[in-house]
Amino acid sequence: MQEHALLPTHQKLIENLAQSANLPVDHLVEQWKSAAAKGTAFREQLLKAGLVSDERFQRSVGETISLPFADKLPALIPGFQNRFTQVVPIRIAKRYLFYPFEFDDEQLVLAVVNPWPSGIYEEAALALGKSSFSMVVSTEELILEAINMGYDRHSSSAEEAAEVLEDEADLSYLDHFRSDETEDLLDAEDEEPIKKLMNSILVQSVRDQSSDIHIDPSPKETVVRNRIDGVLHKITTVPKAGHIPLVNRVKVMAGLDISTKNKPQDGRTMIIHAGRKIDIRVSTIPTVHGEQAVLRLLNQSQGIIPLKELGMTTEMAERVEQLVLQPHGIILVTGPTGSGKTTTLYSALNRINANEKNVVTIEDPVEYRINNYGQMQVNEKIGVTFAKGLRAMLRQDPDVIMIGEMRDTETAQIAIQASLTGHLVLSTIHTNEAAATIIRLIDMGVEPYLVSSTVTAVLAQRLVRKICSYCKTSYLIDRKELLDLGFSDDLLETDFKGELWKGSGCPRCLQTGYQGRIGVFELLLMNDDIRKEVNRTTDASSVKRIAVSMGMKGLKYDVGKKVLQGQTTVEEMLRVIFTEPEKESLPGST
Questions:
Q1: Dihedral of CA 321/324/327/330: which sign?
Q2: 101, 403, 448, 454: which is deepest, by most CB within 10 A?
Q3: What would the mean pLDDT of 67-88 be, rounded to a whole number?
Q4: Which long-range contacts (CB under 8 A, 24 or more apart) does 230-233 make?
Q5: Running DSSP on this structure, what letter comes out for residue 339?
Q6: DSSP state of 490
Q7: Are 412 and 445 in contact (CB under 8 A)?
Q8: What are the backbone dihedrals phi and psi of residue 47, each rounded to the nearest 5 degrees, phi first?
Q9: Is the pLDDT of residue 69 over 90?
């Protein structure tokens, strides 16, 4: 695939991709030639560009060479799984990305990412005593998850590792560890109790797709929890004597000072798990019961998710793509911490041709490393704030500026001036809804006429948990119950089929009934009527009323539609969106 000649199989794959992803054939051919010239896999080129999802690419590969696509990998019986993990080293499984799918006495079926070259798969089959093998294609994420589960010697061992820490003798050596932690955690054989415990916590959290790890001290013990799909879950408890060694272990990994315990510290580190690089931001603060540590996990190998896969409607995604192609103006994304604002901004930026425009970003921290962008990290210790960094960036002849967060009046005013001088500015801000964002800028000291003349759109968003596809079940519900919850007649008329869905709980979703999250959105587009209202008043409700009358669909409408479509539950809707009881109906409301 990396040769410059476009073979018939490659041409057929490109045609299948063009049809399934609605992309021009010529554009895909150019991407293929670019990948070949750089010695990069075609799949990797498309995924990094955000043109297709891994699932869509792999389905097209299967169609092209007549191989089935596996959207789920079944659990193997323990005996064969142990046999496979003993015969095939984890480095080989990770490097070539393959794992057993089915087997019988004679034949082995392997789930693979790359069907060719197949020599390594043949060797694995022979080593397992199988006379032949066949293949199904699957995504890298699913196969890495299977490798993780199969080779994970620490599965459910965080609790077991914590139980080892019973007395001071187990903790005495904890003051010296390397800060260079680049060994794959699944390869680690370290038997030191604290290091083994920390590795177990990290492995379990990555396996469960956690976003954060909390190490919280209390008078008698330390509770370790991870945040999965926005909700904290307890992993294990650590004896009080193990708290300081555990936090010291975290500090050593992040390059922090273990002797300083009375002031906050921030650092970062990187681990490798099943071949994936996980960037970790570490924050420690002193509390009355000891230092509290929080680790934010950032999966650098995840890539940029296309807008349409974030949960936006096709119409909204296309509108946002048009907005980021305009030459100037300000586009704001608002929502609470952890609602996916930065992910949305990068998905939008990905539609801009960075070869033709100078795209610069200033963030705290840089969450996605993009080769073609000029990315600056905020570092207040040496005086690099959002405002100072933004001023410096304006001297770099930028076309597009992305500001990680509009925190203060100075940053907001510089962003306004940048927009007025012909730059496109994208940023995030913390408000509860799109209309309130306009008023928030005025409250920060920006003149109303400047806000109305520069802001072109505000996108508000939240994340709701998706129903687990493995244990999803339907149940009947009365229409009146939904009306009482605020669903409108219009929405029920078009989308309600007399039933809703929920997850009953299974091992795949840790018995929660949910797996993964999806965005819910509202998009406020600035027009003449809204501009007049912004110049006339600072009442967010009146701005919202005009936006709704002009066709804006609110967060409640979007999440209500996703409930009726079976993507999430009523309980999740109430948890995330309905923070206060109100009589307002869903369509057009927020």
A1: positive
A2: 403
A3: 85
A4: 230/338, 230/463, 230/465, 230/517, 231/465, 231/512, 233/208, 233/510
A5: S
A6: H
A7: yes
A8: -65, -40
A9: yes
Tokens (6 digits) for 191: 């038997």
User: How would you classify the pairing of strands 514-525 and 455-467?
Assistant: antiparallel
Q: Which tens digits make up the pLDDT trace of 13-66?
A: 999 999 988 889 998 998 998 888 888 889 988 988 888 999 999 999 999 999
Sign of the dihedral through C-alpha 309, 310, 314, 320: negative
**Could you give the CA distance from residue 524 to residue 517 in angstroms, rounded to a whole number?**
23
Give the number of other CB atoms < 10 A from CB of residue 409.
14
**How do 265-273 and 374-377 pair as beta strands?**
unpaired
SS3 99: strand
Q: What pLDDT digit, counting tens, does each position of 217-264 carry?
A: 999 999 999 999 888 999 999 999 889 999 999 999 999 999 889 999
Please name the residues in contact with 348: beta carbons below 8 A apart, sequence gap of 6 or more.
307, 320, 321, 323, 324, 331, 426
Q: Rounded to whole angstroms, how far apart are CA atoms 278 and 281? A: 10
The DSSP H or E segment spanning 389 is helix 386-393
Kindly state the tokens that stand for 493. Answer: 């008329």
Quote the CA–CA distance of 318 and 348 in Å, as a whole number: 10
Q: Are the C-beta atoms of 502 and 473 separated by less than 8 Å?
A: yes
pTM over 0.85: no
Residue type for position 427: S
* Number of residues that this document lists for the chain: 590
Provide the phi-psi class of 280: left if phi over 0, else alpha when psi is between -120 and 50, else beta: beta
Residue 495 in tokens: 């989308």
Cα distance from N-terminal residue to C-terminal residue, the chain: 49
Tokens 């038997």 belong to 191
Q: CA 123, CA 577: separation in Å to the nearest integer?
A: 53
Which residue in the block uniquely carries the two structure tokens 């928030």? 440
Nearest to 572 by CA among 513, 486, 523: 513
Which two three-digit tokens encode residue 291? 């230092």
**For the residues 190-199, what does the mean pLDDT come to?**
77
C-alpha–C-alpha distance, residues 525 and 320, integer Å = 10
DSSP of 9-34:
HHHHHHHHHHHHHT--HHHHHHHHHH
From CA 280, how far away is CA 390, in angstroms rounded? 25
- pLDDT for 146 equals 86
H-helix segments, 255-288: none
Token look-up 């169609």 returns 63
- Spatial distance between the Cα atoms of 193 and 172, rounded to a whole number of angstroms: 11
Residues in Cβ contact with 433 at an 8 Å cutoff, skipping those fewer than 6 apart: 334, 460, 522, 540, 544, 554, 555, 590
Cα–Cα distance, 116 to 159 (Å, whole number): 41
Pairwise CA distance, residues 533 & 544, whole Å:
10
Distance, in Å, from the CA atom of 437 to the CA atom of 332, rounded to the nearest integer, reads 8
Give the list of residues 6+ apart from residue 63 with CB closer than 8 angstroms, or none.
16
